[in-house]
Design a protein that fits this description.
The protein has 187 residues and is of the alpha/beta class. It has one domain: Response regulator (Rossmann fold, 3-Layer(aba) Sandwich), CATH 3.40.50. It has five helices and five strands, in the order αβααβαβαββ. A five-stranded parallel beta sheet has the order 2-1-3-4-5, with helices on both faces. α5 links the parallel β3 and β4. α4 packs parallel to α5. The longest helix is centred in the first third of the chain and has 40 residues.
């Protein structure tokens, strides 16, 4: 293989990774908007603190999936910045309407938690976010086994959960009312 071919191969791999990152960030932003909308429409936002909507974000920030967790964190932060209109260089007419307008301009506050690849820890984190932190929704969890455990907790409490990364068909075959997934399932 000539050096030109290796370089082209490396560039193709980098482009593929960049496209994957853009897809994950875009998918997360879409999931975030859907979660807020579904929660507002379904009455799942009963305990909004003055000026904020708390969303729990449960991803792997340590262990073998930490890289994916960090990339998903970037997407989550971007979506919150867009919703809160805290990004620099926004036109004044947009910046003046910060927050979620359908909720009176409430700001989004993200509460990040690391499940460390453990489904039981993921479920415990979801329970704490819901009962102690009073989140109005949860996004996560990357690995299907953890998503299953977290969504069980969300369903039990009637808290909306959006998943943009887990692909197990079993996740959407349970008939849950409070779980939505934005990606297709694996074959």
């Amino acid at each position: 293989m000539s050096p030109k071919c290796r370089c082209h191969s490396r560039t193709a791999k980098m482009t593929s990774r960049m496209n994957m990152k853009k897809h994950l960030i875009g998918n997360w932003a879409y999931a975030f908007v859907v979660l807020i909308g579904m929660a507002a429409l379904s009455g799942g936002l009963p305990s909004i603190a003055a000026g904020e909507v708390k969303i729990g974000v449960i991803y792997p920030f340590t262990g073998g999936s930490a890289t994916a967790g960090r990339e998903l964190e970037i997407g989550a932060r971007l979506a919150a910045d867009i919703a809160n209109r805290t990004m620099p260089d926004l036109p004044m007419d947009i910046a003046n309407h910060a927050g979620i307008q359908s909720l009176g301009g409430e700001k989004v506050r993200l509460l990040f938690r690391d499940y460390k690849g453990d489904p039981r820890l993921g479920a415990d984190l979801a329970e704490t976010l819901i009962t102690s932190e009073k989140v109005q929704g949860i996004i996560g969890s990357y690995q299907s086994s953890v998503t299953r455990a977290v969504s069980d907790v969300c369903e039990r409490h009637g808290i909306p959960m959006i998943n943009g990364t887990s692909t197990s068909p079993a996740l959407t075959q349970r008939g849950y009312q409070w779980f939505w997934r934005t990606t297709p399932h694996e074959k």
